[in-house]
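Marked as duplicate of an earlier ticket. Keeping the data here for the record.
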Amino acid sequence: MSIDNNRLVRTFSDLRQKGKSALLPFITAGYPDLDTTAALLAGFADRGVRVCELGVPFSDPIADGPVIQSSYTAALDAGITCEQIFKTVRRFRDATNPAPDGSALRSDLGTATCDLALLAMVSYSIVYRRGCERFCMDAAAAGFDGLIVPDLPLEEAGDFEPLAAEAGLCNVMLIAPTTPPERRYELARHSRGFIYFISVAGTTGERDKLPDETIAAVRELREHTDTPVCVGFGISRAQTVRTVCEVADGAIVGSAIVHRVTDNAGKPRDELVRTVGDFVGELLEPTR
């Protein structure tokens, strides 16, 4: 499969041609359950989200704050597995792909055909345990378009990147604010789809504003690469999304969304999906 026909690559190419940026919501796969995960994806797509990240629950998350850590723990306690996540994504793709006659399929997800690009945020230990080549092939077959492996060392990215590309997946690398410039450029060279720029040192979580040095660092990085740059960690408001998208190709929002999933976890699924979707809709406005 050609990486050039990858949904993620096509999406950012289309957005760049239109002079627009992307909102990239993050949710935890299987939290509070897999049916809700599928319904949230469908709801995001219906509202105009073009790219979404699914966190694969892990017992020892790398840089996630308490909100996402708690969601991972709940999903693992419920017995969520990687195979179940693949099946859920496959079901989502089956429900939102056009039928043979070109019409949109309808299902219990209640969504029409969509071209939502999906990324898995997954620990390298999960990938390695399954086998890197097999994981990439299985993720692509399920309907993922890219992988974000936060604990993948740069020194091993050169071996992993071609395995992902062979499966048709983008391997998205992360750059921290403390990463030296030369290493930033090397990470950028190994990143496909987009570069994940971590806005602040530390763990994920909601913050009022991003440091000025982050904005300056993103501007500087974009002078050295044509690969889209998206900023994550600490983004929780539409105004912050607007600020980020003035200098970057996209804004990633995780903890603020998962927080709202948690707050509504005891409510009927339709209500949860609508409430979380309304919030994501607000965050989308600055990107339109």
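See parent ticket for discussion. The beta strands are 22-28, 51-55, 117-121, 146-148, 170-172, 174-175, 195-198, 229-232, 250-253.
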